[in-house]
Specification:
Blueprint: H1 9-15, H2 18-36, E1 46-50, E2 57-59, E3 75-77, H3 93-105, E4 111-115, H4 118-124, H5 135-141, E5 144-147, H6 158-166, E6 171-174, E7 178-183, H7 186-208, H8 218-222, H9 224-232, H10 240-254
Parallel strand pairs: 5-6
Antiparallel strand pairs: 1-2, 1-4, 2-3, 4-7, 6-7
Length: 260
């Protein structure tokens, strides 16, 4: 169990709506699942979730490892980055820049995940980006955008360029930096990151094999959006709701402390 200082779970739960508390529990679970899959980067990178019915969002307390994060320790901020509840923690300023940029213009987005995994950064450093060489890559390429590296995301002027590059897409590759997904639910956004990460893992492994790669035929790529909708049972989401209950069961076997 984490020994990091956190607010009293009951105190926080009593101050927020039932919808916000559920968002907090799901977001804390998402942090724990990212850690469980080995996609975390010490205390760096970030995941955010909108507070239902508001323009405010929840983000990680800067200084906690992802496996320590709980529903009550998440920090609630407004679009200007102001903390809206007492917390002993600040937030990652680069995380605020990236996440506030997306939440400000994509009002259909409930969650944003950003990672710095070795395979994700490796592919982000390749000029061709994601290659159409796996079934997983089809899901990504159906909805993928790229954003040029501008250094650590502390310059708020970068927000407009990030927004323009992302557009209506749900997958964003930050060149020389890492991966980002955004979606209508926390579950969808996590599943998108799982697929994005897996596509990058496969690409790096295939390239290391030193053999000629087989590209997926262009006509198959052209029909990838329709295939994604058919497989995930939804033209809007990624079918995260199908996998989320099982992911939570797996997480609960490890440590259900994220719910506090």
């Amino acid at each position: 169990m984490s020994l990091a200082p956190v607010l009293s779970p009951q105190n926080v739960k009593d101050q927020v709506s039932a919808a916000e508390w559920q968002a907090r529990v799901d977001l804390a679970a998402c942090y724990r699942l990212v850690a469980l899959h080995g996609w975390d980067d010490l205390i760096f990178t970030h995941i955010s979730a909108k507070v239902p019915g508001t323009d405010d969002f929840l983000i990680n307390p800067y200084g906690l490892m992802f496996h320590e994060i709980t529903a009550s320790s998440l920090v609630k901020v407004d679009q200007a980055g102001n903390k809206l509840m007492d917390s002993p923690y600040e937030i990652n300023p680069a995380g605020y820049t990236i996440h506030s940029a997306i939440h400000d213009v994509r009002h259909n987005v409930a969650c944003v995940i950003h990672t710095h995994t070795p395979a994700g950064v490796a592919v982000s450093a390749q000029k061709q980006g994601v290659l159409p060489i796996s079934q997983q890559s089809l899901f990504v390429l159906a909805n993928l955008a790229y954003h040029a590296y501008e250094g650590v995301a502390l310059n708020h002027e970068e927000k407009a360029r990030l927004q323009a590059d992302l557009g209506d897409n749900n997958f964003l590759m930050l060149h020389n930096h890492g991966l980002l997904t955004c979606g209508g639910t926390i579950a969808d956004t996590f599943l998108m990151m799982f697929i994005f990460q897996r596509a990058c893992d496969i690409q790096v492994l295939a390239q290391n094999g030193a053999a000629e790669l087989i590209a997926i035929e262009p006509q198959i790529l052209a029909g990838s959006r329709a295939m994604v909708a058919a497989v995930t049972k939804s033209a809007q989401g990624m079918g995260g709701a199908l996998a989320w209950p099982a992911l939570l069961r797996k997480l609960d076997l490890q440590d259900p402390g994220y719910k506090s």
